[in-house]
Backbone:
């Protein structure tokens, strides 16, 4: 089967503008569970074992090409400089796909398509050996979709909704926009495709009609899942699709051991990895390439993006973490913020209203509350008092603070970076540390305290005398 798959090219149609999105961003780059729409058909094709992939780009093609080069470097990019329809896009890639025996043509805006569906289409195409195969599905309300017209003589054609006559509009079998063509057959008909339609475009559906003039040359695979092949054309479509995708993703994780208190309010992106026995409270969002180990508990309304969390860690919600690593049995939050490659080692604590940015909190160390730790390294077994700030920015440059092992930092200490604190050192509460603190030393930097005797008595007397002066 691998040899047979090597004979397939896959052409992703990603050149359209998507005017109904009302956005300057190309339709295939619209965000869907924080991934571009085109991510999903690309992933399905890849998971189906199809390796020779190219995308046709056009409107906003520079943005699409940049995304593909970064996230899908194995995929080729072919330009359609003028967008004159789907057949015109396929024609633009002709020199590439003619090198293969088969070409799969798939829209970049069908994010619900699954790898199993594509594998089934490939398998049936190889077994029946037609010149063209495509997927159709049945809809109660087919408005807006191309209809599959099965002719009395066994031929097949596809008519777009806007070009259909009343009799054709009554058909409920819909074209999915997923095709496989024998490249030799496609080459023979593609230049015969005209523009006799409402939009004056060259449509790849006409290639199906030309090939389907002979009975048996087109194989239609009817899908049982009508939602899987729905396209995304409007903001409303994005919302509907997001709900279906999210339900599918969470269901898969729950079958593998995720404990989710309220799946309706939980959102998990497609690239998130969850080990069994993770517990998620309501309102949680997990995005990007996050990896969550077993026995982790994520508190309500927490937002995680591109994080790695070790076994047994607890995040009290709401907390926010992005581009960060949290170690085993660490405790985070509530109301904590981790960002910019923050690292919280095993059994460490980052408590309420603490922000950690581009810093490392060592094993067993604690930053319990109301602190900002930026551009810092904190050793093992150190305690950071409330209100501590690493003053990392001098108006021009970011500077580092280094705090050693087993240190005790008094509340409201300001570290004016660059500065360091040796192992087993202490700071007195309220200190402003501007010089390095040697190991084992106590740093005190604050004004001397003066006590004025009988102050409360003076206030009372002066207050009474003032009242007397006013005649009261």
Residues:
């Amino acid at each position: 089967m691998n040899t047979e798959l090597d004979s397939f090219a896959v052409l992703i149609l990603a050149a359209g503008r998507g005017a109904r999105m009302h956005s300057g961003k190309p339709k295939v780059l619209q965000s869907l569970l924080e991934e571009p729409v085109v991510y999903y058909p690309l992933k399905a094709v890849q998971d189906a074992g199809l390796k020779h992939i190219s995308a046709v780009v056009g409107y906003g093609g520079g943005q699409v090409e940049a995304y593909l080069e970064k996230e899908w470097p194995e995929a080729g990019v072919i330009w359609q400089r003028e967008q004159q329809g789907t057949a015109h896009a396929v024609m633009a890639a002709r020199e590439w796909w003619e090198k293969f025996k088969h070409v799969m043509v798939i829209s970049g805006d069908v994010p619900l398509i699954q790898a199993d569906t594509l594998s089934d289409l490939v398998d049936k195409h190889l077994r029946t050996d037609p010149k063209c195969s495509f997927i159709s599905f049945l809809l109660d309300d087919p408005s807006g979709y191309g209809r599959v017209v099965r002719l009395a003589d066994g031929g097949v054609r596809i008519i777009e909704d806007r070009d259909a006559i009343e009799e054709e509009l009554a058909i409920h079998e819909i074209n999915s926009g997923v095709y496989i063509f024998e490249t030799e057959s496609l080459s023979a008909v593609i230049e015969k495709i005209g523009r006799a339609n409402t939009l004056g475009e060259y449509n790849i559906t006409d290639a199906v009609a030309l090939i389907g003039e002979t009975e048996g040359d087109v194989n239609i695979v009817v899908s049982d899942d009508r939602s899987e092949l729905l396209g995304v054309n409007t903001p409303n479509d994005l919302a509907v699709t997001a709900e279906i995708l999210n339900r599918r993703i969470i269901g898969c994780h729950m079958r593998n051991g995720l404990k989710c208190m309220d799946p309706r309010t939980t959102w998990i992106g497609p690239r998130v990895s969850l080990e069994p026995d993770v517990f998620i409270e309501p309102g949680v969002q997990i995005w990007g390439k996050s990896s969550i180990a077993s026995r982790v508990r994520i508190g309500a309304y927490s937002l995680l993006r591109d994080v790695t969390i070790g076994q047994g860690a607890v995040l009290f919600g709401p907390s926010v973490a992005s581009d960060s690593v949290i170690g085993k049995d660490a405790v985070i939050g509530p109301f904590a913020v981790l960002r910019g490659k923050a690292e919280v080692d095993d059994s460490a604590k980052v408590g309420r209203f603490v922000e950690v940015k581009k810093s490392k909190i060592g094993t067993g160390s604690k930053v319990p509350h109301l602190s900002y730790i930026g551009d810092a390294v904190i050793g093992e077994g150190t305690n950071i008092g409330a209100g501590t700030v690493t003053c990392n920015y001098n108006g021009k440059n970011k500077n580092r603070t280094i705090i050693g092992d087993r240190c005790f930092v008094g509340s409201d200490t300001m570290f004016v970076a660059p500065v360091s604190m040796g192992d087993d050192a202490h700071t007195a509460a309220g200190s402003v540390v501007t010089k390095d603190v040697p190991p084992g030393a106590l740093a005190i930097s604050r004004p001397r305290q003066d006590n004025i005797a009988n102050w409360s008595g003076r206030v009372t007397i002066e207050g009474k005398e003032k009242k007397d002066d006013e005649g009261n």
Summary: The chain has two domains: 2-229, 258-443. The longest strand covers residues 173-182.
